Amino acid sequence: MRFRQTVAVLGLVLFSLYGVVNSYRAAFELEKAYVSAYETRLTKVKRALPAREVVGYVTDDACPPDEAQARLAATRYVLAPTLIADDVNRRLVIGDFHGPDAARQRANKQLQLVEEFDQGVQLLRSREP
Amino acid sequence: MFALLAFLPSFLTAFIFVSWLWPTSPVPARSRLLRCCLAAGLALGASSASFFLWLAVAGSTPAFMPVETVCFGALAAGFWYLGRRRPRVGVTGPPPGRDWLTLLTVLIAACSIHVFLLRSWARPDGGWDAWAIWNLRARFLFRGGGHWRDAFSVLLPHPDYPLLLPAAVARAWTYLGRETVWAPITIALVFWLATAGLLQNSLASLRSSRQGMLAALVYLSTQTVLTVATWQYADVPLGFFFLATVVLFLWHDRFGEETKGLLVLAGIMAGMAAWTKNEGLLFVVVVALARLAAMTVRAGRRTGARQMVAFTLGLAPLLLLGGGLKLVQSASNDVLAGQGLGATSARLGDWSRYGQVLWAWLAEVIVFGNYVSGVLLAYFLLVGWAPREQRHGGLAFCVCVLGLMIGGYSLVFLVTPYDLQWHLETALRRLLVQLWPLALLCIFIAAGTPEGARAARTPEDSAGMA
Questions:
Q1: How far from A6 is each of B97, B387, B441, CA to CA, in Å?
Q2: Any A CB within 8 A of B112 CB
Q3: Which residue in A102, A107, A94, A92 sits closest to A60, CA to CA?
Q4: Residues B301, B305, B306, B310: what is their CA dihedral angle, to the nearest 10 degrees?
Q5: Looking at CA atoms only, how far is residue B368 from chain A in angstroms?
Q6: Could you tell me what percent of chain B has a pLDDT over 70?
Q7: Whether residue B29 has pLDDT greater than 60
């Protein structure tokens, strides 16, 4: 190989090594995704859901839209094959509250508590189905 | 490991099928590895198609596994019988290299696989799209039983997306009898490695062994691609099918009209792309147009038409399958649904959107994979152009496909009903991951080979370098 070609090949090789080292660093810094936490969080409510019924969903009002979308997606993923609608106009509604004002939100949305589970997860019933 | 066993019947059938279509004229060394890479992608696609067909015809019944195994076995036996009657000619070309670059590529591949597993261990459910779209749908197909059609409910995100990944995952769970995160992880790993293998072996045959090794080295170490692969997104599988289709066309060009089977296989791979993601439909149109144009210019309209017939023969069954899926899916595509004569014209007439899209492409290409494009540009400047006779006319076809795909994606951005900046920020990087194997193929076909120093000194090549 000529000098220029040797430099070119060595450059690519070194860059590839740098890429792998960078990938290692990023892999070790990676935190657990919270979808895994949702598997544990929703275990009990999953057992309480009827076999085939579309269920509503509500989360904290103060939750930013992106975070609310992520929570809904994680809930759908864990509770499949139950279909989860992004509204409260269903007979049963899953409450996924992380903040302290779950009771106030229930009252505002005309929802009745059916059962309360761990970590802010609630099964609710619509007062006017 | 058990997840891999679930794909063994379809892999063996796919390998025998690919070997049956493989040219009987002299083919380069290591074609077995190349066939393995093609068969891996084909097997995953074919098994997902068979799973969907079974659901559609017979519903969710436990007879699927034995019936499918018997069908794959019968097909494998049939292809093997047909293949053994064809004369086999020995391989030609350079033997596999055992130099320091090969060893380094193997080392980097091993390290990258280790990183892949570390990331998958930390996030076994993959990235957002994996658990919000692909694996979610797989869970509906597997857990839904008789109600598997709920997977296409309008209550779920993107109900119009094709089924290659979800059905392949659900099929693996059906074979294993339980859900395991290792099924989607294994599928993601297989597609990622098969793409690297396909890239390396294709370039080794079309150009040189070192060129192939360097391309594989760059692909395996591109952090963005590795990350998206561990997210279990459909973009890496889609990139595999893009690359496989184009490579099969190039192989046909290289080994002549005797190799019509490769065109049928190219059609199947393009169909698999459409079965993976909606972007695959754009690819089918683009690759057919680019090929027809290239053949019409190079060999006449009749040759172009003949090639399209063989290509369509492979493509048609998968397009029919996709059509069948659209009948099951009631939802329309979100981007298409947001179009209307007035709204689309207004978006197309807004010149600032063109600048925004162009700038976003440039910025993303520059930062992609830790500025890998800059490093490749420097490499190109140092080694220069390949001699014209080594490019086989395939470079123009590859560049044409790549350019038309970028043009097609840009058009979608221009007319998107979503906020343009948001759409660019969330989609552009993944689109580059889809096109990256094809881009590397173009670059390493165009660039001079590191071992081609003597050839580069010929007058013809000097002109090319200039």
A1: 17, 18, 21
A2: yes
A3: A102
A4: 150
A5: 12
A6: 90
A7: no
Nearest to B222 among A19, A30, A86 (CB): A19
Residue A23 and residue B128: Cβ atoms within 8 Å?
Answer: no
Distance CA B144, CA B167 (A): 13
Place of tokens 């696609």: B45
SS3 state at B49? helix
- Residues B186/B117, Cβ–Cβ less than 8 Å: no
For residues A102, A108, A112, A114, the Cα torsion angle rounded to the nearest 10 degrees is -20
Contact B450 A35 (CB under 8 A): no
Confidence class of residue B466 from pLDDT cuts 50, 70 and 90? very low
Chain A interface includes B306 (CB < 8 A): no
Nearest chain A alpha carbon to B371: A15
Are B166 and B49 in contact by the 8 Å Cβ rule? The answer is no
Look at residue A86 and tell me whether its pLDDT is greater than 50: yes
Candidates B131, B371, B436, B443: best to mutate against A (most CBs of A within 10 A) is: B131
A-contacting residues in B 376-415 (Cβ below 8 Å): 376, 378-379, 382-383
Indicate whether B13 pLDDT > 90.
yes
In this structure, the dihedral spanned by the alpha carbons of residues B87, B93, B97 and B101, taken in order and rounded to 10 degrees, is -120
* Whether pLDDT at B462 is above 50: no
pLDDT score of B199:
95
Which one is predicted more confidently, B427 or B259?
B427
String of DSSP letters for chain A: --HHHHHHHHHHHHHHHHHHHHHHHHHHHPPPPHHHHHHHHTHHHHHHS-SS--BEEEE-TTS-HHHHHHHHHHHHHHHTTS-B-SSS-SSEEEEE--SS-HHHHHHHTTEEEEEE-GGGEEEEEES--
Chain A residues within an 8 Å CB radius of B132: 73, 76-77
pLDDT tens digits for range A7-52? 999 999 999 999 999 999 988 887 777 788 888 889 999 999 988 8
**ipTM, 2 dp:** 0.92
Mean pLDDT of all residues in B288-307: 87
Q: Of the candidates A5, A20, A33, which has its C-beta nearest B383's C-beta?
A: A5
pLDDT in tens, B175-221: 999 999 999 999 999 999 999 999 999 998 888 888 899 999 999 99
The nearest alpha carbon in chain A to B217 belongs to: A16
